[in-house]
Amino acid sequence: MTTTKQDEFVLEAARTETRRPPLYKVLLLNDDFTPMDFVVIVLQKYFGMNRERATQVMLQVHREGMGTCGVFTKDVASAKVAQVVSYARQHQHPLACVMEETE
Over the stretch 56-68, which tens digit does the pLDDT of each residue have? Predict the structure, then answer.
C-alpha cells in the first residue's frame, strides 16, 4: 500500500463588490385642475406624510411646478406612481405622478 501526499489548498472567498440599487425620485407635477386638498390627501395616503409636510410639498408643486414625494428603489417608485395615477383617475383628476433616477 502506498501513501500519497496531496498538496494543501487554501480556499479564499472571492470578494465581490455589491452596488446599491439605483434610487428614483417620485414627483408630482402641477396642473390647473386637481384640487390642492386632493394632493394633500394623496401625499398622506401614499407617502405617509403628516398633514403639515403634505401641505408643504403640495405648495412646492403649486409654486414650482413639481414636488418630490420621496426617493425609492425602482420597483417601489414604479408601484407608487401607478397607485397615485390610478387613485387620481378614479377621482377624475388629471394629477400627474412620475419618477426619475437620482444622480
Answer: 999 999 999 999 9
